[in-house]
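PT: before anyone asks, these are the final sequences, not the draft ones from last week. 984 residues across everything. Please model them as a single complex and drop the result in this thread when it's through.
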Amino acid sequence: MSKELTTRAEDYSKWYNDLVVKADLADHSAVRGCMVIKPYGYSIWENMQKALDKMFKDTGHQNAYFPLFIPKSLFEAEEKNAEGFAKECAIVTHYRLKTDPNNKGKLIVDPEAKLEEELIVRPTSEAIIWNTYKSWIQSYRDLPILVNQWANVVRWEMRTRLFLRTAEFLWQEGHTAHATKEEAIAETKQMLEVYADFVENWMAVPVVKGVKTANERFAGADDTYCIEALMQDGKALQAGTSHFLGQNFAKAFDVKYVTKDNKQEYVWATSWGVSTRLMGALVMSHSDDNGLVLPPKLASIQVVIVPIYKGDEGLAKVSEVANDIKKKLQAKGISVKYDDRDSQRPGWKFAEYELKGIPVRIAIGERDLANGTVEVARRDTLTKETVSIEGIDSLIENLLTEIQNNLFEKAKARTQQLTTKVDSFDEFKKILDEKTGFILAHWDGTSETEEKIKEETKATIRCIPLNNEQETGVCIYSGKPSTQRVLFARAY
Amino acid sequence: MSKELTTRAEDYSKWYNDLVVKADLADHSAVRGCMVIKPYGYSIWENMQKALDKMFKDTGHQNAYFPLFIPKSLFEAEEKNAEGFAKECAIVTHYRLKTDPNNKGKLIVDPEAKLEEELIVRPTSEAIIWNTYKSWIQSYRDLPILVNQWANVVRWEMRTRLFLRTAEFLWQEGHTAHATKEEAIAETKQMLEVYADFVENWMAVPVVKGVKTANERFAGADDTYCIEALMQDGKALQAGTSHFLGQNFAKAFDVKYVTKDNKQEYVWATSWGVSTRLMGALVMSHSDDNGLVLPPKLASIQVVIVPIYKGDEGLAKVSEVANDIKKKLQAKGISVKYDDRDSQRPGWKFAEYELKGIPVRIAIGERDLANGTVEVARRDTLTKETVSIEGIDSLIENLLTEIQNNLFEKAKARTQQLTTKVDSFDEFKKILDEKTGFILAHWDGTSETEEKIKEETKATIRCIPLNNEQETGVCIYSGKPSTQRVLFARAY
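LR: through. Structure below.
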């Protein structure tokens, strides 16, 4: 069939791109660096959104919506943040087209419709939001503000890859305002935990929680917390970040509040986000050379039923049983598709649903009917089993839980196997090139050393793990003393 | 209190704007013509989205996501559509800022980062979507495509009003592709019915279903179907449109399919959308001089419970009963807020929840406890009643249904009262100025007459009602013969 994938061993990067396109998750578009998220891919993103949105609301947050555009003067108000994003901004300069006098039926930008002040298409919304919060916050009674936004953002990346790095992407960005530093830090950490919970328990992807070094921090943050995951090729992927913004934005936008004892204080801030990049992490964590492998909790179709039959009469007999099973599964809250199309053969359907990562496939043949059995196939292990129709709803329900757990345990074992403690720079380079993965090594704590290591190896410090074990050691690069190991890797 | 509204009689337009801002639905932003949708307003929009999204999925549609930007060459491909939107487009011309050499800490657009081809921020997505469909559609087996997108769009309107007309707004846009003309027309009509169902049965706003005249048609459509609603001030508001696009986009983007008998045919298209404008319709249909009035099916808080007490002991007693009632109501799927804040007095809370349109308020005083009663107040009628706590959950459940129905019936009676059959142009002008509302009048069917009437009266033909009664008559303007009355009004 034409949907055959490049294998991972052949070319991991091509395998990824092939898979995303052929499994109907997303595709390239006519706009440089922008993708089209296809219905099947979007249905998985919707499941992610639903789970995350509930977690945000359960922790007291509300959704809101702020403008797509940021006037340049607001954009540049928080200087570090502006500097961090200035080089990758889409900029609106005009608000009208007119017909081209020299070219019938064509349009040109109307030079008379030039904006007085350019508008930046949001790469992130701190500036426009903190400018708004200024009018929302007067006293301590107005705090905290716990707001999230689901939105599109644009960062003009030069090298793009479907889901992993695109010029436009979808995300959520939480922006909270607090009376005290302690409360803001607690919020930052809480949201990191929410992200870790989601990525591990829904996406079945194990993560390392940590803090970024000053070099890798979000532009405008005092501290950036992050979760880092390891992909099958041994490269790291930053799956989510939660920033403690200190009073930087409050100062840039002059957002003060009156305390209980009637003093004026600047407000404390956090922001936190995950994006459609998670779709890339999901694909790269679990999938194989046959296609996508989806964790049941995020699959939009959890079970597919394929009939194997001859003639209309055969189909009618099989369908009766299939529809009965479908109903029983749906009653358990399981999402089921019964594919009785006669335009495709069972073998084609098997391959198609393997490619699309449907967790469980049930095949029902005419012969099965006499025996009261069906064939159940697991996508994660590619194993098949003949089981009794009696009690199949409970069996499938348990199987879905087992698959969800198995995917997580498999990814966890891989991450552990690919995490290496290293004590010399030679070993560091060797592991990076040959074994790949996470490397725990001593570092002297300077940006200089961090940059040198990056230049020489393309590895970055992914994070300083939270609750890191303290141990004396020497920096693998400078030989200077160090008190803890940090997490290095080459990253997406 | 400072939250007092301008009354409708005083200044309807100011009343509307006051209400939107003071009830915390939305606010103006630092970006010309763009609004901030505040958490309370957004929670109502989320309820609208949820209901509509389910209706779309129940009719076989899937969500997807297409790029925010449209390259100019694609934008201009369907000429009528391009012409229709050219005058109100935000245009991205550059992709980088740089530090201003003459002004420390400031940024300027980097002239070296000019795009080769300008990008239009989507005012609607037909162009980018049909350019994508070209690669999705080869044969009749790929049809129909039934896709919807939830997105932000930008139309550079010169005169903006919160929700009703903003430069950026949120909407959904369905874009479907079909093998036959009949199927596409059936889809167009089906989605009009979905919209009418939603607006009438969820928003409690009665609508007239109809077809636009050629003048008022969507740019690029062969036919535009619409639903029109009448606001309290007698002005019409277009609440949703569903377009039969013929083969216009298929031809512009060369999208053909192979039929069953192996012929090449152009694909037939529809598109349909509703936007955050519906929030404006919701506000203007039901609200009064005390504030918002929300239909229970869209209210994010359906019932608020306010305790009336003295001292901590009093609060404890009332809270026990209040929490018990809250639980019972929640068990019925009713969304309840118990406001036991001690920072505000009951009177303040009553006014606040009236302003915010909470359908039902339950007040519980210490005296009530002895009697086993509470006070139940309806927002729609502003009436109060003392009721027994026994069976209150069923009582409230029925009351919410009653309020939903009452709001619809009230709006329907108003619309009927404000719909006038008129047979002369003098009467037409008099009714428009004095009575206002919908006017049913004979029209000769020409664009010329339609434009003249618009010039002289600012009234437009809102639609030719579906299933219109056929009757002979003469055009109120030209005196030429006519076979049916059409619906005129001044509109938002």
